[in-house]
Design goal:
Length: 154
């Protein structure tokens, strides 16, 4: 293949804390990388979706050069994935996205997406609690797709 986009992840931090072994097995794409290495001409571009949770959260905004210091198992597995990919893939891009939002997917997902979760809670007149000191940079799913497509055309 010319391009592989790895979106697979256990991305719920609580689930990663409950089962760190499964989180590591799924979030670190060692089998995928080994499969890509099995091709004679190993020039496949691997685009890997990571997370902003690789940072400790002490600053408001991070740059990719900032040192990754994850505070939870999810972030730690994503740092491990980034390290594994950078050491074993000759052609890769790592995208550290934050909350991805957009319309509900066609295939069922086990959790609601942020907009659907907020809309559902508000329609039931439920009270929502949010962090007061958390800075995130959500990205619209179609904007993320645009970035991925741009990477594939280089």
């Amino acid at each position: 293949p010319d391009v592989v986009v790895n979106c697979a992840a256990i991305s719920v931090p609580r689930a990663c804390e409950i089962d760190p072994a499964s989180a590591h097995a799924i979030n670190v794409p060692s089998s995928l990388v080994k499969w890509l290495q099995s091709f004679k001409q190993n020039s496949t571009l691997l685009i890997h979706l990571s997370t902003d949770q690789v940072y400790e959260g002490e600053k408001s905004f991070y740059k990719e050069e900032d040192i990754a210091i994850p505070l939870n198992v999810y972030g730690k597995t994503k740092v491990a994935a980034e390290k594994f990919i950078s050491e074993n893939c000759p052609n890769f891009a790592i995208l550290r996205s934050s909350i991805i939002y957009g319309p509900q997917t066609l295939s069922p997902v086990p959790k609601s997406l942020p907009i659907q979760w907020i809309d559902g809670a508000l329609s039931k007149r439920e009270t929502l609690e949010f962090f007061h000191d958390e800075f995130r940079c959500p990205i619209y799913v179609k904007d993320l797709v645009t970035v991925i497509l741009a990477l594939t055309s280089q």
